[in-house]
Write a structure and sequence with these properties.
14% helix; eight-stranded antiparallel beta barrel; 2 helices; 166 residues; Porin
């Protein structure tokens, strides 16, 4: 009986340790940005101690406008107005920890291109994550990207997404 109880204790402690710190996740998010912008982000997140995390991400951004010829948003003015892609890294210290949720600041740098020149900058924001069964996470974030050499100096908006454990 003692052996069984000891094995159960180690199993429970081992499973609990796995669920908290040092987990890796793959995520995808979609968002709306001011003014007339859409973005999609693919990310890899490594959670460290005390629910802090590092995020490595790739982002594509699309800005649409009204067509000068027809006066409304058409296929060409939507897809071919202004596009960027960026790669970046963000540190996310935890500022709120709940039972099945955590809130983090998001501070990082990014760099990429807009088809003709290099664009780069920084990102700052807040992210709130909800932990579901099986390691699945849903999250939303509010952020502002400050860009150098891009068409938009500030890109501000909200994104929603999901992550899975690796």
């Amino acid at each position: 009986m003692k052996k069984i109880l000891t094995m159960l204790l180690f199993l429970v402690v081992g499973l609990q340790t796995r669920a908290d710190d040092n987990s890796n996740r793959l995520g995808v998010a979609f968002g709306l940005l001011y003014e007339n912008g859409l973005d999609a982000t693919l990310s890899y997140e490594h959670e460290t101690r005390y629910h802090n995390a590092w995020e490595y991400f790739g982002n594509v951004y699309l800005k649409w406008a009204e067509c000068e010829d027809c006066g409304h948003i058409c296929k060409d003015s939507f897809w071919h107005n202004y596009n960027t892609w960026t790669l970046g890294i963000a540190y996310k210290p935890a500022v709120h920890i709940g039972r099945n949720n955590v809130g983090r600041l998001r501070i990082g740098v990014l760099g990429g291109s807009d088809k003709s020149k290099f664009v780069g900058g920084g990102t700052v924001g807040y992210e709130h994550t909800y932990q579901l069964k099986g390691g699945f996470q849903l999250f939303w974030n509010v952020r502002t990207d400050v860009m150098a050499r891009g068409e938009d100096l500030f890109k501000t908006g909200i994104s929603v997404g999901a992550r899975i454990n690796l």
